[in-house]
Amino acid sequence: MSPGSMGNTGSMGITGATRVTGVIGDPVTHSLSPALHNAAFAALGLDWVSVPFPVSAGRGAQAVEAMRTVGLAGLSVTTPHKDAVAQAADEVSDAVAALGAANCLVASADGRVRAENTDGDGFLGALLEDADTTVQEKTVAVLGAGGAARAISRACADAGAAGVLIVNRTTQRAEVCAGLAGSVGTVAQHADIPGADIVVNATTVGMAPDSAMPCDPALLHRGQIVLDIVYNPSETVWLAAARAAGIRSYNGGSMLVHQAAVAIAHWTGHPAPVDAMRSALQTHLS
Question: 138 an active-site residue?
C-alpha cells in the first residue's frame, strides 16, 4: 500500500495481510522500539505492525529460524542476542561482518535473512540533529567497549574522526573496540577524557533505576559535547552534572529514533518519518 492510504493497522486493525515485525531481547517488555516502529508504519500508511517478542538468552539463532518460518518482515535485536543473530543470518552487511553483532534483521523476498547494524548510523544522525555537528576531524572519547561502543567507534572512524579514544575497565575489550576504528583508534584512560571534543557514554550505566556515572563529571568541561546512549531517565545523573557545568549534553533518545529509522528504511523501502517517530518517543517518555 502506498503512504497515506488507509491500510495502516491503526485504522483497519490487524488482518491476515498485515506484515509483522518486532523486537527480540531478554528482557524486552521495556523496549520502546515497537512504539517507534508503529508510529512510522502509521505515518507511512502501511499495513504493518511491530510487537515485542521475549526471547530468552541463548535462543537468538532460533529466533532467526522462526523469522523465516512464520514470515516476519524484520526484527530489531537487543541484548543479549546481537552476536547470535549475526552468526545465524544468511547474509550480513559490512558493518555486521566487522562488528560481529547485528541489531536489525531484514527478510528478503526469497526468505533469506540479512543482518544489519544501525547503531553507528543512529549515533551519527543523533549527533547531527541534537548538536548540529559531525565527528569529522574531532576526537571522540567512547566510554565502554560493548556492542554499542564498537558500532559507534567504527562509525566515527568511517566518518572522519581525528581520534577515537576507548575508555573501558577491561583492556582486552578496549583493544578490540579500538581496532575497529583503525588507525585513529586508541585505548585510553579516564585522564584522557578532557582532551576529547565529544564524549559518549556507550554503556547502560545510569539507566533507570541505576544512578551510577560512567566517569567523573569533573573530567568534562565547557566546549565539549557530551552524549549518553541512555534515554530512560531522560536526564541521567551524569548528564545532569554535565549540564549544570554548562556543557552541551544530550540523551540517547535521538539515537534510538535514528537507528530505528534506518531499520524502517531497510524493512519497508520507504524513508522513515523521523518526526512521527520522535513524537512517539516523547509521548512514551512523558
Answer: no
